[in-house]
Amino acid sequence: MLKRAKIIGELGNGMYGTTYTADVDGITYCMKVQKILAKDKKKSFNSPLWRELDLYAAISKMPKSDSKFLSCMYDWDFIDDCIHVQKRQHKIKDKRFAEEIKKLDESNVCVRYLTELKPGESLHDHMKKNKISEKEFCALMLQIIKMHMVLADHGYAHGDLHPGNIMTSRCKSENYKLLNYTLATGKYRLSAIDYGEVIHKKFKQKLGNGSKRFFTDTDKYLMDEVMFMAHNFAFGWVKIVDKCGWNGVNTWNKATYKLFKKHPEFIQTAKYKYYDIFPEGVDEIEKFLKKIDKEFVNAGEFIKSSYSWDIINRLIYEFGANYPETYADYWKLCIVPKVIHKEMFLMILMISSIAGVIEYLKDRM
What we know:
Blueprint (H helix, E strand, L loop, with lengths): L5 E8 L3 E8 L2 E10 L11 H12 L4 H4 L5 E7 L15 H12 L2 E7 L5 E2 H7 L4 H20 L2 E2 L8 E5 L4 E4 L2 E4 L3 E5 L6 E2 L8 H8 L1 H18 L1 H8 L4 H14 L1 H8 L7 H14 L6 H4 L3 H17 L1 H7 L11 H8 L4 H11 L1
Helix pairs in contact: 5-7, 5-16, 6-7, 7-13, 7-15, 10-13, 11-13, 13-14, 13-15
């Protein structure tokens, strides 16, 4: 099919690849082009290319009730004399990552994927243009949970599911199953795209503690992913990133240090709210508080437990929801977040399981 494909126009570009609309025999598809290293042409799960292709193969065997929340691939190929030039929206600040990207840009090998064209726009653009009501917040969050659970049921995790990697299509409300509930999509149906960071046990990837927990405590892993997306909605992160950019891990470490150093009363009070969810992490948080009382501590180096990370993230989310001006100052944001549905967001932070979040969101629709 790709040999008959004719590019119509550009849809967008990311860090690694560019996505186009393409015509094949009068039907419009989505075509992604990205540079790869020559060695990655040989099949190996050491390469993200072959991990992504493996997931696409799995999606092709899923029932339609599951695969409609994902994207399907119809063809792929290599180009050995590729002249594709990758455009990027954000400047790369990390030197090691910049070197990796430079090697890719200098390669003359590309891979092309032909996938279904999802109508509509990215969730990123949808959130940027529209005011999200409480009912829509619940409907969209439940579909995002559905995506995560469909993948998890087949042994996969997306690994990079954010608003830019989710398509939003306007539709007549459709019913779908989530646990024992029959739920309605509402007027928008979501589907996950871009599987370059996909996780599976058979890949034997080198993963951080947070990602490793997908295999040891899937529910907690999925909860962290859900908290991330709820935080995206509540804080309007798509607008912040578009306007301010993102300063990365160094900002996070310094901001977290400031939060713990300057607001120990808030931390001491708030952390026990999450004790029942992450009892393993509370002792580590206590040690962190004592340590920063004497000297600067890099949270990324001091905190080792995934459960401690989860508590820290919830403390940050709660602090940001209650004190958005101070949060913007510590995280060096150029605008103050306008937190929406604050009461509901804070309530979600307190829920200990995916099933609990599903039930809570279902009842608020």
